[in-house]
Design a protein that fits this description.
Blueprint: E1 8-18, E2 23-33, E3 42-45, H1 57-68, E4 74-81, H2 89-106, E5 121-122
Parallel strand pairs: 3-4
Antiparallel strand pairs: 1-2, 1-5, 2-4
Helix pairs in contact: 1-2
Length: 140
């Protein structure tokens, strides 16, 4: 199992899906670090239960493991939020997937152009999206 080679702090993900009626809402902020001496994935939670209920941690962990795609890391949750009606396991799973992929991009394990595929993730070193110029026909 590969290890995350560099720290990626302040990865923020806010998922807001409207699925007709109730949506899927999740909001997390996490710091990604290289794994400890054992080299295993670790998830540490420093967010109070009032801001991130423990029932969503299982889905978040599953999403992080999917997003990291076999790369081990130590993940510290530093902030989070939920909505009584709209938060769901599905939203936290998506948040975990996006956060994991953002960490891989921030650590240099995925190319920067992959950042354009992340809809809800932001981090301090996120590459800016390239602005595409509208098509202009050639002048004659």
């Amino acid at each position: 199992m590969a290890a995350l080679p560099a720290s990626v702090p302040n990865v923020a993900v806010r998922v807001m899906l409207n699925l007709g009626g109730c949506g899927s809402y999740a909001n997390i902020v996490a710091d990604f670090e290289p794994p400890g001496p054992a080299g295993n994935f670790e998830l540490l939670n420093a967010v109070p239960k009032s801001r991130l209920p423990p029932e969503f941690l299982h889905a978040l962990r599953a999403g992080l493991l999917e997003g990291l795609n076999g790369v081990s890391a130590a993940v510290l949750l530093t902030d989070g939020a939920y909505h009584e009606t709209d938060s769901s396991d599905y939203g936290y799973r998506i948040a975990g997937q996006e956060a994991g992929r953002a960490a891989l991009i921030g650590a240099g394990l995925l190319p920067p152009c992959e950042a354009e595929t992340l809809r809800w993730a932001h981090w301090p070193t996120k590459p800016r999206a390239r602005r595409r110029r509208p098509y202009q026909p050639p002048r004659h």
